[in-house]
Design a protein that fits this description.
The complex is a heterodimer of chains A (488) and B (461).
Chain A (H helix, E strand, L loop, with lengths): L2 H15 L7 H22 L7 E9 L4 E7 L1 H20 L8 H20 L3 H22 L4 H29 L7 H5 L5 H18 L8 H8 L2 H26 L1 H27 L4 H22 L2 H32 L10 H4 L1 H14 L6 H14 L3 H26 L15 H19 L2 H25 L2
Antiparallel strand pairs in A: 1-2
Chain B lengths: L1 H18 L3 H21 L19 H20 L4 H4 L3 H20 L3 H19 L6 H32 L4 H9 L7 H18 L7 H8 L2 H27 L3 H24 L4 H21 L5 H30 L10 H4 L1 H15 L5 H15 L3 H27 L11 H19 L9
Classes of the chains: A mainly alpha (488), B mainly alpha (461).
Amino acid sequence: MTVSLLIFLPVIAAVLVLFFKNSAAKHAALVFSLAELVLAGVFLSKFVPNATTQFQIDVPWIPKFGIYFSAGIDGISMIMVLLSVLLVPLIILTTYKHQYKNANAFYALILFMQAGMLVVFTALDGFLFYVGWEAALIPIYFICSLWGGQNRIKVTIKFFLYTFSGSLIMLVAIIYLYLQSPEKTYDLSHFYNLHLSIGQQSWVFWAFFLAFAIKMPLFPFHTWQPDTYTEAPSAGTMMLAGIMLKMGIYGVIRWLVPLVPLGYNRWWDTAIVLSIIGIVYASIIAFRQKDGKRLVAYSSIAHVGLISAGIFAWTYFGLQGAMIQMLSHGINVVGMFFIWEIIGSRLNTRQISELGGIAKVAPKFAIAFLIITLGTVALPLTNGFVGEFLLLAGILSINLWLAVFAGLTMIFGAVYMLRMYKSVMQGETNALTAIFADISGSEKLVLGIICALIIVIGVYPQPILHISDAAVKQLVDQTTMKFYQAKP
Amino acid sequence: MITLIIISTLPILLLYLGLYKAQKSLLPVTLVGLLVALGFAIASYTRADMATPIYSGMMLFNNFAVVFSGVTIVSTVLIVLLSRGYFEKISSHVAEYYAIILFSLAGIIIMVSFYNLVMLFIGIEIMSVSLYILAGIKKTDFASNEAALKYFLMGAFSTGFLLFGIALIYGSSGSFSLEAIRNWVLSQPHHVDPMFYAGILLIIVGLCFKVGAAPFHFWTPDVYEGSPTLITAFMSTVAKTAAFAAFLRLFSECFQPVSDFWVPVLLVITIVTLFIGNLTALYQQSFKRMLAFSSISHAGYLLFAIVALGASSANSVFVYATAYSIASIISFGGLILVQQQSGNDNFESFNGLGKKNPFLAAVISIAMLSLAGIPLTAGFIGKFFMFSGALLQFHLVMVLLAVVNAIISIFYYFKVIIAMYFRDAERDELVVPAYYKFVLGIAAIATILIGVDPGLITGLI
């Protein structure tokens, strides 16, 4: 049993979904994504949580150029795989009340994108990683620009150009590493053993950093993000914010720091400061947002900034926090965007100032919204708390002041999120919100699952932490050792 | 070698068929002839590549020549397939078209298998003279006449440079044979005759004109725009591939030892070509003119392989040229259909195509993605090899500039995709003839197939 099963099932599913009628496509897509979830469950049950890479596949692809179809799952990848297989069915469920034009193409693109992301999360070969990276980009471009809002054409081409520029520069760096490797291979483990000078490592560091920072996005490469999130159809936004931006974070953990430890050692402070500027900056902008979806988009920049800062601190706690926070953030942000999708589709507005009092007419919706909000602001006993606590602990062990500023995300987040909740849900109903219908059917199901996950992970995160524990420990030790070896 | 003989005699047969008014048999005869020629070419492919020069060292039909003959013949077959019903509309002398295209192809076969500068010159001339005629074949059309005259004047001028260069090379080395020239260069490690250098420079000028590299590209947009679209497709795919094959063959066989001298020159030309092609393509309103400028920028990427001359250069050029040719044939094929319906070739005439003709829009999108170099298409593999080869020779700055250009090119390739899918327009469904469906479908599948499993064509050289 190799990881190729997991990768190719969505590809086949995507092709098959194309043959369904538009009305049946969503059911087919849901069934396929659930099958993928079950398959991932089987993988999880056979997974041994030690530091080794399991379910490995390694077949020649273009052997003449040292390119192999080489992929596998270790603890870190496992969390990412779980994240994507868990969220895709949920995201497909969120679209159940919506009738898209050419629905079969829509769901096929979502499934194809899932395959691309799974390649990214499991690839052990630089070339494969890059191909997966781009293969995830093309579908989301079409999803956003075919089913998006008013300004979609301009906004999505900006998004595409941003990410494509970053990834091309990363490609140059990957080829560069290939040429430096004595065996002329794209194999990741060979890349780990390269001995490059600090100058070479520095530029490779920045080349990778650019690609990942654009994807996450980090300040100052974030300008594509709020527009794209706002214009994209909500399922597209969820794919982007829930799973795709984690490709950038995962890239830093698996590729950037371990590949060029000396480059990292030289530049980590710049990277961490950029992350923290992003936290403060995005939080302040989030205060001023009038559109709910946009507010969530900016809050996502702030949260990702914290994850990135925690990773660039490169401590065991920080990385473990990043792993669980990626999962939690994915769940919470999908919930948050779904909340706004429900509001937007019922009332045809997302302006916070026009809303109010919804809690009175829709109590179930209010509870779900509250739990998701609390998860997002990282209240203890919700999933957000575990991750952010560990991340801050990681940053604190590096520098007190960085931790203080990074901690602002929790305070700021609480302020703008709770304020948003208050003005949308509490107070008196107005003419618009008085007729708000409470959630039902598939909406109830999705929000129920999300709320359950928020609480369960918040109360008992141990199983998830355990999955990535050994892999993270080994990765940190292995990289930290190189810092010391390099010192004269 | 039988390939060349078949391709040279086939047009004569076609002319006779035309003489006896056997219009219906022209296309089948051409196709069968080309496929037989292709079969003979493939049959002479050898694993170990033990080919020896033939005809007193005039030609060398080695694997390099075989694969480039292969890709040019296959492209020609695709283009000829698209020509059904196309030439009849332009004029009544249909046999001439097929015959001249094949004459041109004969020149191309010589260009990819020459082993003597005389053969290079003859090959280029056979190809070019045929192309001059083809460009102006719409006799009553003003633009077509302009294209032919421009192409001829500029082409004749550049041939002069090429010939002068060859003469200077001969003057210093005393031979036309590639092998003899190479040995002569190797025998003079410290001091090479300045005349020889002058010869190289003049040959660069001549060949850069033929491949349409800046600053010798001024003929391209007008000629491409004025010529009948199918002829443009032929010029920008088959003729360009052949010119690059000849370029590469000459420089890797003869001039590699003195690469320190000409690499800086070509480096500048490459970068200028990339920027001029891409930046000008950005401002085009016409799809055909955009393709003309994009073909200039692709010439820039192809030049990478010659600047970073190495063992894998031939493979890079082959993969890139194949990917580029297939994608271009799709684009021009799609353009012909759209042009027939709307009467012009502006981007606007593609509006709303995605709704009415999903198949056509999908294959054009694949072609655009391939030209833009997006992974899982053949174009990406081509760019990937070019970048790898250039980085291997430490041309980091050049690669970064090329990356900038690849990003710029997204704008204009995506313009087409955006027009087809995201802009609505009142339009009727286009009738896509079956053979168009066949050619475009095959080409699109090939593009994806090469993108997913490049092992299919890499490693042939």
